[in-house]
Design a protein that fits this description.
By secondary structure, the protein is mainly α. The protein has a single domain, classed as Multidrug-efflux Transporter Regulator, Chain: A, Domain 2 (Orthogonal Bundle), CATH 1.10.1660.10. 60% of the residues lie in helices and 5% in strands. It has five helices and two strands. A two-stranded antiparallel ribbon has the order 1-2. Helix 4 packs across helix 5. It is globular and about 55 Å long. The protein starts with 12 loop residues before the first helix and ends in a 7-residue tail after the last helix. The relative contact order is 0.09.
Length: 121
């Protein structure tokens, strides 16, 4: 990231990996009741970040995204099982695309430095 102040958290993978929010905040952000989120977790649709016995449920960026997408599909008339399956397929597709982008970015980055022997940019 450059020092220009143009910070975009959606493009900062380190930031997104560190983003972990309590169930109450997730409910506030998404509009999905905590009871529904707990039910989805019991069914294995979303996963909370495990921080020890009795700790408050906390969710990472990907699970918050899943919650939003599932709720949108439910609002459109999908059943919970159909919405969960559709979102899981979308997430797999997104993961594949981002993996390819990350690999391409690494290849470009490595080739840039492999051909740069004079030390200047």
């Amino acid at each position: 990231m450059s020092g220009t102040g143009n910070f975009d958290p959606l493009l900062d993978l380190d930031f997104l990996k560190k983003l972990i929010v309590g169930i109450g905040e997730v409910s506030e952000i998404t509009g999905v009741p905590t009871r529904k989120i707990r039910y989805w977790e019991e069914k294995g649709i979303v996963e909370s970040v495990k921080e020890g016995e009795g700790a408050t449920r906390r969710y990472d960026y990907l699970n918050i995204k899943k919650i939003l997408l599932i709720q949108d599909l439910l609002d459109e008339g999908f059943t919970l099982d159909a919405a969960a399956k559709k979102v899981e397929n979308r997430m797999m597709t997104i993961n594949k695309v981002f993996s390819k982008l990350a690999n391409a970015s690494l290849d470009i980055h490595e080739s840039k430095f492999d051909g740069d022997d004079d030390g200047q940019e």
